[in-house]
Amino acid sequence: MPKRALSEHRPYLLASLAAAISYFFVMDSAIGGIWLMAWKGAGVAFLALYAAHRGKGVDAALIALVMAFGALGDVLLEISFLVGGGLFAVGHIIAIALYMRNRRTHPTGSQTMAGLALVALTPVVAALMTYPLPNWQTATGYSLLVGAMAACAWTSSFPRYRVGSGAVLFVVSDLLIFARETGHISQELGSWLVWPIYYGAQFLIVTGVVQTLRTRAA
């Protein structure tokens, strides 16, 4: 019955899971080219369609845009880290706007401190890993934006243990990319860790936001 409900009422989630899980097993294959790039982008692209289909209103449109820019970033990262990262940066700015529209009225002290820690520590860790390599400043600036996105998610009125945790996992996935590219962890380990953590982050974020919006509307 749960599988039937998923396929009948949330087909985009089912398609997203199928694309993302299958991509994990073929990402290092010899298929290559545009087909593998499209396969990679499909997981989060279906999450964007899920948000557009299941959500209503401005906030639903914003989270759909966040996922859409994420899907484009997934594809273009295979061509250029700067272009792909730029698309993700646009998505993070939209996400910050979404979370600021839905700020928690009375965050606790621990929630506020966690948000500040995400903003402060994410770019510091990125800088320590990438300095003095070329474009370390770009990586640090981008990480500041990612940390701000995660901080806004954590202190928003959306569920912390879905949307907030998903945003924190996004931070982890990006830092793992930097660690892999700078040789702090092996390419093999990085490849095995980054995709499931990143996709899990996006899945938690979009389902948490959409289901919260639907509950409020009801």
UniProtKB/TrEMBL annotation:
Q: What's the superkingdom here?
A: Bacteria
In the UniProt record, does the keyword Calcium occur? Answer: no
List UniProt keywords, sorted A-Z.
Answer: Membrane, Transmembrane, Transmembrane helix
Q: Does the keyword Membrane apply?
A: yes
Q: Where in the cell is it found?
A: Membrane
Which regions span the lipid bilayer? 12-27, 79-100, 112-133, 139-156, 163-180, 192-213
Give one Pfam family. YhhN
Q: What is its main location?
A: membrane
Please report the record's description of how this protein sits within the membrane.
Multi-pass membrane protein
InterPro entries, from UniProt? TMEM86B-like
Q: Which family does it belong to?
A: Belongs to the TMEM86 family.
- The name this protein carries in UniProt is Lysoplasmalogenase
